[in-house]
TrEMBL record:
The protein's name in its UniProt record: Dipeptidase
Entry keyword set: Dipeptidase, Hydrolase, Protease
Keyword Hydrolase attached: yes
Highest taxon in the source lineage: Bacteria
Recorded catalytic activity of this chain's protein: an L-aminoacyl-L-amino acid + H2O = 2 an L-alpha-amino acid
Residue stretches spanning the membrane: none
InterPro entries hit by this protein: C69_dipept_A-like, Peptidase_C69
Enzyme class name: hydrolase
EC numbers for this chain: 3.4.-.-
Length: 477
């Protein structure tokens, strides 16, 4: 089995830790290469239709129930070669799922419970086999846990489930073993490609869930290196040189943004997964983490550190980031318009997060249809935003401020749009809600495309003036 997606960053915020009482579950979806076109779609509900889904990257075949809810997905365009990887979305029951954060177990535990690479569940189909069938975040953990027990896991994956009350983070680390933790309401969490969950309290099933027999497995094979406690990261995770330069700095920077008064070491192996901030966290805070490249530190590849410093750590936001998303459940809005997936195609540093209501069934064509290659008509949202990213970075010193102004204006417009549109669903039935939200979304997407293309035109014209192929004659000669 080939594993195409291997590097992501996750940010989770409990409802009492956010400024507006919303839950926020966010992740960057990073790939091996810079171009891996994606779409944003809505899969329809179905009834009395038992079926199977088959993985493209191994031989896994999963039987699905006869009834399934509609749900959003962000699949790859080249699914036959890259796998489907639906990645993220809400279902019609207002349950969100983001999958996956790739995690890696150590060789000790894998020697006793190896991954089922040939026919186990993998990221290729993990959303399609779970999201259409769950009614809450906690049920998502139970449901996926049952699938892992039946089919095994082909890889190590961190999976997020969210609803209006809860966020659960589930880490599948070996062929059959996993642990999940509920993020406390007054806390946030940050991780990036390492086993994140730390101390597990097996006497607290309201906040922890685990695979059958995991305690006996660890005890039987003498896998716990600690004299006291049961630290999931220490038992199942890794702590090596690669982690210190690829993984731990991203967790460090996330805490630096969300909890700046706490000093931490970017090379630390025991950076906390869950913390409490001294302030309420906003959507902009989450976006700032996911669009981060160590701004304000010597490690910024676009900054003023030494060449060694600028290449010491792997940034959070990359040209390999195919999408960045925030699954937000707004408890201050009518329930029918409370779920919003803020989707960012392009490099998050340079492009906006665009809101899509979970109950809007008609996805805009510019997101639904993505060609494999760039077409200069820029009708595809994926290619439009990736083109903007390239333009801004090509003359970053000259274009950065205009891009920041554009992003600020987009956020203001989009926040106002959500807060104006969402209350209008009150009193509408389900079909009216979907039609209304879909129609309003089409208008919003068109406005964002206009603003983006206007900026691109200005930057291109400015860029033409920056050419080094110029010459000014000294008039005094």
């Amino acid at each position: 089995m080939k594993k195409n997606l291997s590097a992501c960053t996750t940010v989770l915020v409990g409802k009492n830790a956010s400024i507006d009482g919303s839950t926020m579950a966010a992740r960057n979806d990073d790939t091996f290469g810079p171009l891996n076109p994606m779409r944003l779609v809505v899969y329809p509900a179905y009834r009395n239709h038992p079926n199977q889904v088959k993985a493209y990257l191994n031989h896994c075949v999963v039987d699905r129930p006869a009834d399934g809810y509609s749900y959003q997905g962000t699949p790859n365009v080249d699914y036959k070669n890259q796998g489907i990887f639906d990645e993220s979305g809400f279902n019609s029951q207002n349950v969100g799922m983001s999958a996956t954060e790739s995690v890696y177990a150590n060789e000790r535990v894998l020697s006793f419970d190896p991954l089922n690479t040939e026919s186990g569940i993998n990221e290729d189909l993990i959303v399609a086999t779970t999201l259409p069938f769950i009614n809450s975040a906690k049920e998502g953990v139970s449901y996926l846990g049952g699938l892992i027990k039946k089919y095994g896991s082909a890889e190590g994956n961190g999976v997020i489930f969210s609803d209006k009350n809860d966020i659960w983070y589930m880490e599948i680390v070996t062929g059959h073993h996993w642990v999940a933790q509920r993020i406390p309401d007054d806390a946030y969490a940050v991780t990036g490609n390492r086993v994140a969950i730390q101390q597990v309290d097996f006497s607290d099933p309201d906040n922890f869930m685990w695979s059958e027999g995991i305690q006996e497995f660890v005890e039987q094979h003498h896998l716990n290196p600690d004299k006291h406690g049961w630290n999931f990261r220490h038992i199942f995770g890794t702590a090596n040189f690669f982690d210190q330069h690829y993984n731990t700095p991203r967790q460090w920077y996330g805490h630096k943004i969300l909890n700046p008064t706490v000093e931490m070491d970017p090379l630390g192996f025991d950076l906390p997964f869950i913390m409490r901030s001294n302030r309420k966290l906003t959507l902009e805070d989450v976006e700032q983490v996911l669009s981060g490249h160590y701004q304000g530190t010597p490690y910024d590849p676009l900054g003023k550190g030494t060449d060694e410093e600028k290449h010491l750590f792997r940034p959070i936001s990359l040209n390999r980031t195919q999408n960045s998303h925030v699954l937000q459940v707004r408890n201050d809005l009518p329930e029918a318009a409370s779920t919003i997936m803020w989707m960012c195609f392009g490099v998050p540093t340079f492009t906006p997060y665009v809101p899509f209501f979970g109950q809007a069934q008609d996805m805009d064509k510019s997101y639904r249809e993505t060609p494999m290659e760039l077409n200069m008509d820029l009708k595809s949202a994926y290619w439009m935003y990736r083109a903007l990213s390239m333009i801004v970075e090509s003359h970053h010193a000259e274009f950065a401020q205009q891009d920041l102004d554009y992003l600020k204006d987009c956020r203001e417009y989009l926040y106002r749009w959500v807060n104006t549109v969402a209350p209008q669903v009150a009193g509408k039935d389900n079909s009216e809600v979907s039609a209304f939200l879909s129609a309003e979304s089409h208008k919003m997407v068109a406005e964002l495309a206009k603003r983006t293309k206007d900026l691109m035109a200005k930057l291109i014209m400015h860029g033409l003036e920056l050419s080094k192929l110029t010459f000014i004659m000294d008039k005094n000669l």
